[in-house]
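Technical note accompanying the year-one report. For the benefit of new consortium partners, we illustrate the data format agreed upon in the data management plan: each record pairs a sequence with a structure-token string. No post-processing was applied to the example shown here.
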Amino acid sequence: HSTSAIILISITNSIFTSYYLNVSIKKQAYEILLLALQHKIAAIENDLLAIKESISNETKSTAGDKYETARAMLHIEQENVMKQLANAQNQKHELTAVDTSQVASVVRHGSLVTTNYGIFFIATAMGKIVVDENSIVTLSKISPLGKVLMGKKENDIVLFDSRRYEIKKVE
């Protein structure tokens, strides 16, 4: 037995917002992050292709030092973009390890945690997203706040950055 679901995602000012029909907030948050990472990876891959083209199109001019400097700068830029790509791919790998259908009584990788300071999705660090008008902060399990929340359960209190977080719900 399956239910049909529609997820509409809009991107405004780099904030991903979804509107749903029969889909959990956690599943929507996951889908938003997956889409955002796919977009990010595609954009970085396009940048990498452009740099590779620039390197191959760089023609040796009469000023040899100028040519060498330009090529060296392009290679440095290529290395930086390759690092960005590796980071984005690692984030996607971290996200795809999440099983949105599982609910645990303690905070773990993939948990949606509601606190007195807002809602946190422990998956991969991608900033703030909006799901069904709920603002959700996405965190990595190895981020400072992510580490503090891991292993906690409903009604637990954690102290972080001079704030007292009351865990109201773990999904």
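Partners are asked to follow this layout when depositing records. Residues 1-8 have pLDDT under 50 and may be disordered.
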